[in-house]
Design goal:
The chain is built from 13 helices and eight strands. The chain has 292 residues and is an alpha/beta fold.
């Protein structure tokens, strides 16, 4: 696959490709795992690292971070089922954290890249956590960045009400696509949304039906019990951003206490992969390497 992408880039430089973006995307493969087709991208060489995105589920969330880490790692990014270039399975009307974790485990296994380090952000954070619990054999270590553990908060209803009002305003303004923009602006900030690559932004907005009709309201109840969390032996880092809302700190502290680790901070917002990618890589690279 890497050779094909290099050839496309060379052809683009020589003016031989009319629509190089389409050819590049066609060069990126999908694979049938867990009864669905998953679009994925591979970069670099070395120990494997899987990135799991949050709301809108697009591999492009981690483009910059993946490029930075490809000097040392084989980096895997993917579109979660029913998002962007991973088609919505026929009859698929609901999902679960377990289903999302099963997809990630099956992808790593099919690519022969397990065990891998795993980074999960937001909804991807609870997916990575469930991987640790239910598929420990495919995970060598894990970074859980601001996992959505709404059920552990002191006032979960307050947080859900705020998010609900943001989504409702977006729906009233223009339906699911507009609601995605409202939601991402709320969660990550106006500047992050405005600076996104236009193609990525378009794909994310197109995932509104999946986000609001399938995922949101389902993932928020996820809460492993204390004994299960205490039984995790895989090296794990709980990560929060310095500019994120207080409830992310609250959830991270709850989780870290049960895993027996300290919370680690990184610069940026809820999406440091967009606004502080270099700093994020500096934060996680030593942990991803593992012990010498």
């Amino acid at each position: 696959m890497r050779r094909l992408v290099i050839k496309v880039m060379a052809a683009e430089a020589m003016g031989l490709v009319e629509n190089p973006r389409l050819v590049k995307e066609a060069a990126m493969p999908s694979i049938a795992v867990n009864r669905t087709d998953i679009y994925h991208e591979l970069r670099g060489a070395g120990p494997s690292v899987l990135f799991i995105s949050g709301a809108t589920g697009d591999a492009g969330h981690f483009d910059r971070v993946a490029d930075l880490l490809a000097d040392e790692f084989t980096v895997v990014t993917y579109d979660r089922r029913g998002n962007s270039r991973s088609p919505r399975p026929s009859g698929w009307e609901t999902t679960s954290v377990a289903e999302q974790a099963d997809d990630a485990a099956a992808l790593l296994t099919a690519l022969a890249l397990a065990p891998a380090a795993v980074f999960g952000n937001s909804y991807g954070g609870i997916t990575a956590l469930d991987l640790l619990i239910r598929h420990p054999g495919v995970v060598s270590r894990a970074v859980l960045h601001e996992p959505i553990l709404v059920s552990v908060l002191e006032n979960p209803g307050e947080v859900q009400a705020v998010v609900g009002s943001v989504v409702e305003a977006g729906m009233a303004a223009g339906g699911p696509q507009e609601a995605v923009e409202h939601f991402i602006r709320f969660a990550a900030g106006d500047d992050n949304w405005d600076r996104l690559d236009p193609d990525l932004r378009h794909r994310m907005a197109s995932n509104g039906e999946t986000l609001f009709n399938v995922e949101m309201g389902t993932f928020e109840s996820y809460r492993p019990d204390d004994a299960t969390l205490a039984g995790i032996t895989t090296p794990t880092q709980v990560l929060v951003s310095q500019e994120s809302a207080d409830f992310f700190d609250e959830a991270a502290a709850w989780l870290a206490a049960r895993l027996g680790v300290e919370v680690v901070q990184t610069p940026g917002t809820h999406t440091p992969q967009w606004d502080q990618p270099e700093e994020l890589v500096r934060t996680i690279r030593p942990f991803l390497r593992g012990p010498s």
